[in-house]
UniProtKB/TrEMBL annotation, chain A:
It comes from Oceaniovalibus guishaninsula JLT2003. The chain crosses the membrane at residues 6-27, 60-79, 91-109, 129-158, 179-205, 211-231, 238-258, 264-282. One of its GO terms (cellular component) is plasma membrane. PANTHER family: ABC TRANSPORTER PERMEASE PROTEIN (PTHR11795:SF450), BRANCHED-CHAIN AMINO ACID TRANSPORT SYSTEM PERMEASE PROTEIN LIVH (PTHR11795). Pfam families: BPD_transp_2. This is Putative translocator.
TrEMBL record, chain B:
It is found in: Cell membrane. GO terms for molecular function: branched-chain amino acid transmembrane transporter activity. Its main location: membrane. Keywords: Cell membrane, Membrane, Transmembrane, Transmembrane helix. This is Inner-membrane translocator. CDD domains: TM_PBP1_LivM_like (cd06581). It holds the Pfam family BPD_transp_2. InterPro entries: ABC_transp_permease, LivM-like. GO terms for cellular component: plasma membrane. It is a multi-pass membrane protein. The chain crosses the membrane at residues 7-24, 30-51, 81-100, 109-127, 163-183, 215-233, 253-276, 288-310. PANTHER family: BRANCHED AMINO ACID TRANSPORT SYSTEM PERMEASE, HIGH-AFFINITY BRANCHED-CHAIN AMINO ACID TRANSPORT SYSTEM PERMEASE.
Amino acid sequence: MDALLQFIFSGVTVGAVYALVALGFTIIYNASDVVNFAQGEFVMLGGMITVFAFEAGMPLPLAAVLAVLATAAIGVALNKLAIEPARGAPVVTLIIITIGASILIRGAAQLVFDKQLHRFPAFSGDDPIRILGATILPQSLWVIVGALVVFVGLWLFFTRTLTGKAVLATANNRVAAQLVGINTAWVMTLSFGLSAAIGALAGVLVTPITLVSYDVGVALALKGFAAAMLGGMGNPKGALAGGLLLGLLEALTAGYLSSQYKDAVAFIVILGVLFAMPQGLFGKSATERV
Amino acid sequence: MTWRNKWLQLAILAIAIAVLPLFFPSGYYYRVGALIFVNALAVVGLVILIGYAGQISLGHAGFAGIGAYACALAPEHLGLHPALSPVLGAVVSGVLALLIGRPILRLKGYYLAVATLGFGILVSMVLTNERALTGGPDGMQVADLGLRAVLRDLGWRLSGGEFWYGASGIVLVLGAWIALNLFDSPTGRAMRALHGSEVAAATVGVDVARQKLRAFVISAVYASVAGSLLALQNGYITPDVAGFLHSVEMVTMAVLGGVGSVLGATLGAAILTLLPQVLTVFAEYEQLVLGAVMILVMIFLPQGLLPSIARRLRGRDE
């Protein structure tokens, strides 16, 4: 029982990170129909920039804010320089552009920073908290609460603010949104910035636990993508549920079955779900118009 | 003159393969050439899947991995002759593609991308984790084909590089010939029809699911044979051959050259294979340049290099 609880704690922590990455995917996908394979690099940038700003003598909270803002700027630049010029291109082209961007960002990070593993101190110390015979790191609580805050924040943003509703309208029908006076180019810019900032925040929160190096992004992007698909592409609730579910499945597999194949779970589950429910767990079925 | 002209394309390919060695300053270039042909072979398979049938796969490196490890494992564990193990790999890949293709190919766009990606990653994970069988991430030795010794006995002395340059070149021309034949065959026309619109193709009697599956299985066999050739010519293989990045590399080569064109596939394979070789001097910048090339080509030449160049040439003629 203690072991199970322990696995659940670690699963929820990892799942919260996947959920943040999946939320980032969802925002960009909704605004532009692009699946951004460079999403994992935003997490990496969040961690790396914080590490280097902190080591340069900046206070940790300031370094974290700087990392989130800088990554958001990189996200906006990605949209302006690589996605907007290829507007309306087929799926394969967009996949290659964003994968190219992820390779580019990784290559740049390796030059600007280095190839070492880095971490910075946890926000509230490293003493584990005991709960019912299992332990959880204070930093894990930061990660979980961070994911929930982001989710609630996004929900309020999309349902309670005019800008948020403009994003939803653009996602629903770009032409109609333009007709009612929504600046869809601005919505795209906003989505990329927001999504990059969320990715960077995930990186800032999780680095004290998992450490960061220039190449952590690929695995995170693939898992986040799987989580977003699991919940149904474009659905924020699905992204949160998919991320947490994936994290739990991984932790339980590592605990009870095989730690070598824990990474396989994500893809076995995703294949199973897609075979049975091609639209994901929470996705709506769409019909092709001719 | 059209780029679709089958014999012209084959002749250009064969002549290029035969003539290029005249300009090679050292034996090393044969090795690079052989690597280009192997990559091009896998990419020609993807041209059939992506270019003809309009389906995407981010997991074809998985089939390359199966072909490669068939060559490494079959001679040792099954006692199969090394020359027959590529056939075994191709059969296994083809059957596997047939089995997973049916459910996977019902998916579209990004969903298809993530499902194939998942398949490829599962294959590479098995190859990495089953250490007892595959040697894990360190990889394993591959038995020699033995064909070079036969040629030597016949009085034809070839270096390893020269032999594999010739062998992969011949297989590539053969693969290109099959792909070009397929283009104008009823099957090829059906594939291209469903690429345009699945509903329209189904209305005129194309069995959409069946044709997609065909393209998937054919391209899987191409990738598998390419993987086998890679394993045999290197004499060594690691799970990287089945990795996600290799899948991405293959798709990029296909789209870079021009995704509907067999010659373009070869050009794309040549460029992306040569890039790291040229950039070894600036090893640190390799990823940076590769990423930038991928983005720039997709933005400015979305049709791929060869069709874009061909269009420009034709435009000037008129």
